[in-house]
Amino acid sequence: MKAGTVIRPARLSEAAELSAMMRRTFVAANGHCSTPENVAAHLDAMCTPERQAQEIRDPDTLTLIVEQDGRWAGYAQVRWGTVPPAEVALRPTVELARIYLDAAFHGQGIAAPLVSHLLAAARLRGSRSVWLTVWQEAEQAIRFWRKHGFQIVGRSTYRVGDDPKDDWVMMQALPVG
């Protein structure tokens, strides 16, 4: 891991800061994917301090913060309580629900250790696989996940406000033992 990088669980007291980061990183990565009204509706539904506090308290959700030299660089989240798509046959499984880095930290070698932490957490809880969804038009993200051992196994739809987006379902089998 890069010197100065810390990966740790989010704290309840950080729910508002996490929500603000979620909003920034979603808009930077996906703000162009729909109308401003749909993006705003999505942010208002998914990225509130109250919702983040609820997710931080949820024992079936792990939210990690990644810091670089004391500054928040990004966050990630895995959820054991979601129902996986039928294409994800290896069970038990866990959803890699979110992973975002602030643009200033892209290309600095932070994402790979963050993914490693998430996969290790999944194995520790007995998951046999990890799955995620990724927008079909997010070519860079799809390349990243393939590089980290994920394969496309199906399709899903994600809503940004009332705008449906075609996503890929990607999965990685985890080593046993």
UniProtKB/TrEMBL annotation:
Keyword annotations: Acyltransferase, Transferase
PROSITE patterns in the record: GNAT
Listed Gene3D superfamilies: 3.40.630.30
Positions of the N-acetyltransferase domain: 5-175
A Pfam family: Acetyltransf_1
Protein name stated in the entry: GNAT family N-acetyltransferase
